[in-house]
Amino acid sequence: MRVAIDIGNTNIHIGIFEDDVLYAAHTVRNALLLQTNFTKVLNPAVISQAQAVILASVNPPLEAYVIEYIGKHRPEQPCRIGKEIPIPIPVLTESPCSVGVDRLVNAIAAFERTKNGTIVVDAGTAITIDGINKEGAFLGGIIAPGIEISAKALHHATALLPQVSIKKPNTVLGRNTEEAIQSGVYWGSVGMIRHLVDMMRDEMKCQPTIIATGGDASLLTQDILMVTTVPHLTLEGIHLAYKMHLARHPH
Ligand SMILES: Nc1ncnc2c1ncn2[C@@H]1O[C@H](COP(=O)(O)OP(=O)(O)OP(=O)(O)O)[C@@H](O)[C@H]1O
Ligand SMILES: CC(C)(CO)[C@@H](O)C(=O)NCCC(=O)O
Ligand SMILES: [K+]
What ranges do the domains of the chain cover? Predict the structure, then answer.
């Protein structure tokens, strides 16, 4: 049994892999994790019995907490993607080390599925849209505000706009403030994703496969054509990067 942990900015996602198959996954709000007892979220027995605990983090302070907790329950340090586990694909950006490892493991898992030029949309805290060429190399992409960030930003930066939870509006023309914010954030995000995917497709000069993931993917992609949603793409990518490393460096 192997445990993959994706430490993001809103949520931590935990996946349990048995015989290379993801058989359990759960998500905990970071804020909740810091308030509650870690043992309720990351079962000490699972941590101590796992063959490997593999981490991908884009949130260093929370990562430090998780590593400290894991250290109490198993003698080996967890394997960190991008540290002990090198990124097993070419990263063709200016500064490969500064690309979020969640974007990179998404690319690894997506390419494993498509074996084709691919665009990955991850709609989480941020919305990222990244290109992978048909050789499986990470090309770069875009980082934009996620829908919760957009809704919060409107509330925090204004005197009159309330905090609104975003759902799909029935109409584009909002008839009250709440509907107007929902429409702006929902249709704005959908339109942004559609447009950026089109632009990226042109720039990549190929017919890439589009894969979406992240907490808001199923909400947003209902209005985007030709997208396959893979809920646990990041966890799959963490596990895959680890397996690729093992294949290259058998113990
Ligand atoms: N049950 C849920 N719990 C938490 N967030 C949810 C849930 N359902 C939908 N969401 C949405 O998912 C988004 C967070 O997505 P995700 O879980 O991919 O974030 P994350 O992993 O922290 O992101 P990142 O890695 O980009 O920091 C939020 O915008 C929130 O609106
Ligand atoms: C963009 C996010 C926040 C998405 O989770 C993460 O991948 C990150 O913090 N990235 C670092 C900067 C970069 O990817 O270029
Ligand atoms: K994410």
Answer: 2-80, 96-238
CA 26–ligand 2 middle distance (angstroms): 22
Give the Cα separation of 78 and 101 in Å (integer): 16
What is the value of ipTM here, to two decimals? 0.93
Q: Is the pLDDT of residue 251 over 80?
A: no
Cite the DSSP H helix spans in the chain.
30-35, 38-41, 44-49, 60-71, 101-114, 147-156, 177-204, 217-221, 233-248
CB 80 within 8 A of CB 55: yes
What residue's CA is closest to ligand 1, atom 24? 8
Return the CATH class of domain 96-238.
alpha beta
Burial 180-195 (b: 16+ CB within 10 A, else e): bbbbbbbbebbebbee
